[in-house]
Predict the structure.
Amino acid sequence: MPAKLIDGKAIAEQINAETVAEIARLKEQHRLTPGLAVVLVGENPASTTYVSMKDRMSARLGLHSERVDLPASTSQGELLAIINDLNFKREIHGILVQSPLPPHISGETIFAEIDPTKDVDGFHPLNVGKLALGDSTGFRPCTPAGVHELLIRSGVKIEGAHVVVLGRSRIVGRPLSLILSQNAPNANATVTVCHSRSANLAEICRSADILIAAIGSPRFVKAGMVRDGAVVIDVGVNRIEDKTAEKGYRLVGDVDFDAVIPKASLITPVPGGVGPMTIAMLMHNTVLAAKMRQGIA
Ligand code: NAP
């Protein structure tokens, strides 16, 4: 039996519809319009596309949104000052600084400057610590939170499952491992985190009930790395050259989709899998931040 597709676009639209309804309720009952500021430094084409998508989605769902476009030459001090202003801005409840930042700016320093109550990307050390401690009052990073929602809303049994996460980044792999191994409903998985130094990678992957690839390597996961009936989640977004495509490239994931589809029971496509969920969770987190600020969360 070939795998069934997990339709990330459709699931993200369900979440967006819930967010629209919640924003309408907040406007009506509390005169509260959640606001998101997105900061982009430089002109990385992928980042520019992501920021525009976030901007458009904010407008579509009824959020107040502000976009701050800065030249790549912006100094760390200038960026810190801008974040500090946003920290104090009443109409802004969520702040996102798009990664990657230019090499002369330290991501750690920038993320630590964001008011943790406005840190809708979940990268501030306080929110990272809360996630590690299993304290649900913090913000969860959007991509791992999106993967979690995809699994839940697709009816995948997480409790007791062996989850193998390929990748240990602070943005995806590590927080995902923390979310899925929590002692909490829809979690309680046994999680193995793999990275570039892991030995016996294929063997470990084959033992996964749920295999999640987040490494940034096009079509890395082959059929021989997937157990029959496994659930496969592909977080990877990689541009590969394609002269037949209008832009000269197309997007593929970290999973060799065509080869793996006959083995998996459920699989996410790229694009249209995890990507739309990341934005949906960002909007969700911004509404949550506004409610927390107002004391109505
Ligand atoms: P990252 O920071 O570069 O981290 C990659 C991780 O993968 C590292 O832990 C690295 O190991 C590991 N790795 C790399 N090559 C490997 C290999 N051959 N075998 C095993 N592990 C390997 O990347 P990221 O930010 O987590 O992003 C990962 C992918 O997800 C990228 O394609 C990115 O574009 C995509 N992404 C998608 C979304 C979305 O919304 N859909 C959001 C974020 C990221 P080491 O730690 O040992 O170096």
